[in-house]
Amino acid sequence: MNADPLTTPEIAWPKVPPKIFVTEGLLPFANAKEFVFFRDKKYFPLLRIECATVNLSFVLTEPKWVPVEYQPVFSTADLTELGLRQEDEYVVLLIVNLNRGLEEATVNLTGPLLINLKTGAAKQVVPLNYANYSCRHKLLKEK
Prior knowledge:
Elements: E1 19-22, E2 34-39, E3 47-51, E4 57-61, H1 76-81, E5 90-97, E6 106-107, E7 113-116, E8 121-124, E9 137-138
Parallel strand pairs: 1-8
Antiparallel strand pairs: 1-2, 2-3, 3-4, 4-5, 5-6, 5-7, 6-9, 7-8
């Protein structure tokens, strides 16, 4: 598909705050707590977050771009910790592992990043139904 994701209504970047604050850090980087988002349309639908305090970045994507039925169930404690009550108040993003290149890229379905859209509070959570998913699910469909 050659559509420009920034101008095509049916293809859009996820709504994310400019900065997120991960109070517990991202595993195993407990000191990495403040991140800034970067987008580049040539890498759509992948986003990058860069830590504001340490030399660290991650690639993320929305679950809708992964070939899997993904319906994570979050605990009331996780939602409350982030000040969440309604589904439209947050976005779920998956961490992408590109160590072996795009063709072999995987996403972590068992440790998504849950982000409060209003406050920027974020947490890497383990869904209650994590056993239904893999931490190394293929990003691209098998050919």
